[in-house]
Design goal:
ten-stranded mixed sheet, 18 strands, six-stranded parallel sheet, alpha/beta, Rossmann fold, binds 6-O-phosphono-alpha-D-glucopyranose, 3 domains
Length: 612
C-alpha cells in the first residue's frame, strides 16, 4: 500500500476512534470533543513521525557506525522517506569497503616486505595467526570511563601506561576488552551484559565491564595489588603490606573475572586470551582449567624482583602456580624473565628449561619471554610546537626554556628526587634563575591509599619549598600541575620542552619516555632517563641517570640545556628509529605470534565450564 494511503487510513482510524470514544463516554461538549480529537491527531502524528522518521534515522546512524567498523551489512529496514539518503550512504559504504580492501592488500604486501609495523599490518598479521579465532583482553583498567558531569555524561581516558600501550591494538584488531567498570556513569551506557562498543565516537571493539563492590576494590585493587604486589615487585624501598583479607578478596575477584571471561568465550573455539598485569596472577590457571583449548598469555607490566625479595610474599606459591597456568608469560626485559625463572626454580616443584626459557609442570609447559612494550608510532603529524610564551601565559609565567615530567603520582616515579635535582641545578647554575622552569604534569593516583596521599603532600611541599627559595614575580622553577591531563593537553608540553625528565626509581618500561620521543618530529629536545626503567635498554641515546644521585641528575639537566642542536638531532633521530622498529604493533604481533605457535590441546579432554 502507498504511504499516502496508509497515512490517510491511520488518520481516519484516529478520528473514528476519538468519535467512538466520545460517544461511548457520553461527551456532550463540542469543545471537549474537539480537544479529544486534537489530542488523538497529535498522538497519531507523533507516532507516525517516530515510526517513519525518527526510528529509521536511529537505524541509519547505527548502520553507518557498523559500516565504519567494517561490517558492511544492508540497511536493515525499508524507509521510503530516507531512500535517497540510504542510497548515498550505500555508495559511500562501497567506496569505504574498496579503500579498506586496498589498504589490506597493501598491508599484505608490506607484511611480506618486512616493513614498518602499522595498525593495518598488525591486523593482517593477527588475521593470519588467529585464523578467525576470537581475541579477549583482560585488564583491571578500562580504556574509557564514562563519568557524570552535571547532567551530561563525559568520556575520560584514564592516566595509565597500560592503556596507552594496549588500546591501539584493540582498535586495529577488534575483540573484547574485559575490565573493571570504574566510571560513575559506566552502568548507564552498557547493554544487559555490561557491554559497550568503543571508542565511543568511532566504535572498533567491545568493552565488557565487570562490576566490583567497594569491599572488593579495597581488598583486591588497593590492598593486595597495590599495597602488596606493587611495592613487592618495584625495588623502591617501600615495604609491602600483606593482609589475609586482601588476599581473600584478590582471589575472589580473580574468580569473578574468570567467570566473566568464560561466559564471553562460551561457544568460541581456541580463543586467544591476553591477560594483563599483576592484578590477575591467578587468572591463567582458572581459565586453562576450564578451557584447555584457549591460548592464554599473561603479560606482567611491572618488574619481577629477585627470589629473595619475592620470598617474603606469604602466598607466593599460589601466585606462581596461577601464572604458570598460562602458555606464555611476558615481561618487558630478559632480566625480569630470569628473576621469574629463578623464583620458580626455588619455590615450586617444576622443571625449568634455561635453554628455551620455559617451565614444565606435569604435562603443561609455559614459555617465559621478554617482549618490551611500546607505543603506536609513527603517529599522524600533529600541530607544531606552540610558542613557549603562549603555553606559559595561562599559568602566569615566563621562562626561556622548560623541561617536562609526566607521571601518575607514585613513589616509584622519583618525583621528589627530580625536584631536588632541579634545586641543585639552580644552586650550581644561578644564571638559570628566571630562565628555566620545570613543568610537572602529575596525575593523582590510587588516592585512597594513605601512602599515596602522603606522597601527594610530600610532592606539593617540596615544590613549595624549592619555589620559595628561588621564585620571582613571573617565574618559578617548579610548576606542579596536579590533575589528569589528556594526551592532547600533554602533547604541546612535549613539543615545546627542551628536555623530558624521567627519574623512576624502578619501572617496568615507562612509556612517557617513548611518548616524548614520538612527539619530537622536529628531532630536537633531550631525554633524561632513569637507568632503572625498561625503556633505558632501548633508548640508549637518552642521557641515562641514577635517580638516587642528585648531583648526577643536576649535571644531566645542565648537559641537556647546553647540548647543541646537531647533537640533539643525532640522538633524537636514533631514538626515533628504535621506536619505529619496535612499536606497539610489533609488540602485539610478536606476542600473538608466540601464542598462536603453541600447539593446541584437545578441548574435549578438559572439564566443562562452571555454571556459565
Ligand atoms: C602503570 C603500570 C601498569 C599498571 C598501571 C596501573 O601503567 O605500568 O603496570 O597496570 O600503572 O595503574 P592504575 O592507575 O590502573 O592503578
Amino acid at each position: 500500500m502507498k504511504i499516502t494511503a496508509r497515512l490517510a487510513l491511520a488518520l481516519a482510524a484516529a478520528i473514528a476512534g476519538v468519535l467512538y470514544l466520545s460517544s461511548y463516554l457520553h461527551v456532550q461538549s463540542d469543545g471537549l470533543r474537539l480537544s479529544l480529537m486534537a489530542l488523538g491527531l497529535t498522538g497519531v502524528s507523533l507516532w507516525i513521525i517516530y515510526w517513519r522518521v525518527a526510528r529509521p534515522l536511529d537505524r541509519l546512524t547505527l548502520w553507518m557506525r557498523d559500516i565504519r567498523a567494517g561490517d558492511e551489512a544492508r540497511f536493515p529496514v525499508r524507509a521510503r522517506a530516507l531512500e535517497t539518503l540510504v542510497a548515498e550512504a550505500s555508495r559511500l559504504a562501497q567506496s569505504l569497503g574498496e579503500a579498506r580492501a586496498v589498504a589490506e592488500q597493501e598491508a599484505r604486501l608490506r607484511h611480506r616486505a618486512d616493513a614498518v609495523w602499522t595498525a593495518e599490518r598488525l591486523k593482517e598479521h593477527v588475521r593470519r595467526q588467529l585464523e578467525g579465532r576470537p581475541m579477549f583482553l583482560v585488564a583491571n583498567r578500562e580504556p574509557y570511563e564514562h563519568c557524570r558531569k552535571g547532567k551530561a555524561i563525559e568520556v575520560r581516558t584514564p592516566a595509565s601506561g597500560l592503556v596507552t600501550g594496549l588500546e591501539p591494538i584493540l582498535r586495529a584488531c577488534g575483540g573484547t576488552w574485559i575490565a573493571h567498570g570504574s566510571g560513575d556513569a559506566d552502568w548507564d551506557v552498557v547493554d544487559a551484559r555490561g557491554k559497550v562498543k568503543v571508542p565511543p565516537h568511532d566504535p572498533q571493539y567491545t568493552l565488557k565491564r565487570v562490576w566490583l563492590s567497594e569491599d572488593e576494590m579495597d581488598g583486591y585493587y588497593y590492598g593486595f595489588s597495590n599495597e602488596g604486589l606493587w611495592p613487592l615487585c618495584h625495588i623502591a624501598h617501600t615495604r609491602p603490606l600483606f593482609q589475609s583479607e586482601d588476599w581473600a578478596r584478590y582471589k575472589a575477584v580473580n574468580e569473578k573475572f574468570a567467570q566473566a571471561l568464560l561466559q564471553e568465550m562460551a561457544g568460541t573455539q581456541e580463543p586467544c586470551v591476553l591477560i594483563q598485569d599483576y592484578h590477575f596472577a591467578l587468572l591463567p590457571r582458572l581459565i586453562k582449567t576450564f578451557r584447555p583449548d584457549a591460548r592464554v598469555a599473561i603479560f606482567w607490566h611491572i618488574p619481577w624482583p629477585n627470589p629473595e625479595a619475592f620470598d617474603i610474599c606469604p602466598w607466593q606459591t599460589a601466585i606462581l602456580d596461577g601464572m604458570l597456568g598460562a602458555d606464555l608469560i611476558g615481561f618487558h626485559i630478559q632480566f625480569h624473565c630470569n628473576n621469574f625463572l629463578e623464583t620458580v626454580d626455588r619455590t615450586l616443584e617444576s622443571q625449568v628449561d634455561w635453554e628455551r626459557f620455559a617451565v614444565r609442570r606435569s604435562s603443561h609447559a609455559t614459555l617465559v619471554k621478554p617482549l618490551p612494550i611500546s607505543i603506536a608510532f609513527p603517529t599522524p603529524q600533529t600541530a607544531p610546537a606552540p610558542a613557549l610564551e603562549e603555553l606559559l601565559k595561562p599559568l602566569g609565567l615566563r621562562a626561556s626554556a622548560i623541561g617536562v615530567g609526566v607521571d601518575r603520582i607514585d613513589y616509584t616515579k622519583g618525583i621528589v628526587e627530580r625536584f631536588r635535582a632541579v634545586e641543585r641545578f639552580l644552586e650550581l647554575h644561578p644564571e638559570q634563575k628566571g630562565e628555566f622552569s620545570f613543568v610537572e604534569l602529575a596525575a593523582p593516583s590510587r588516592t585512597l591509599i594513605q601512602r599515596y596521599q602522603d606522597l601527594v603532600a610530600a610532592v606539593e611541599q617540596e615544590a613549595v619549598r624549592i619555589n620559595g627559595r628561588f621564585q620571582s614575580k613571573q617565574w618559578r622553577p617548579i610548576v606542579l600541575l596536579k590533575r589528569i591531563h589528556s594526551h592532547e593537553q600533554i602533547e604541546p608540553f612535549y613539543k615545546a620542552a627542551r628536555l623530558c625528565f624521567v627519574t623512576s626509581l624502578h619501572d617496568g618500561m615507562n612509556l612517557v619516555s617513548k611518548e616524548f620521543v614520538a612527539a619530537r618530529d622536529d628531532e630536537l629536545g633531550v631525554l633524561i632517563l632513569s637507568r632503572f626503567t625498561g625503556a633505558a635498554r632501548e633508548l640508549r641515546d637518552a642521557l641515562l641517570i641514577n635517580p638516587y644521585d642528585i648531583e648526577q641528575m643536576a649535571e644531566a639537566l645542565h648537559q641537556a640545556l647546553t647540548m647543541d642542536e646537531r647533537e640533539q638531532a643525532r640522538r633524537m633521530a636514533s631514538m626515533r628509529r628504535a621506536l619505529k622498529d619496535h612499536n606497539v604493533y610489533q609488540w602485539a604481533g610478536r606476542l600473538i605470534e608466540e601464542l598462536a605457535k603453541i600447539p593446541s590441546v584437545d578441548a574435549l579432554t578438559g572439564p566443562s565450564e562452571p555454571g556459565t
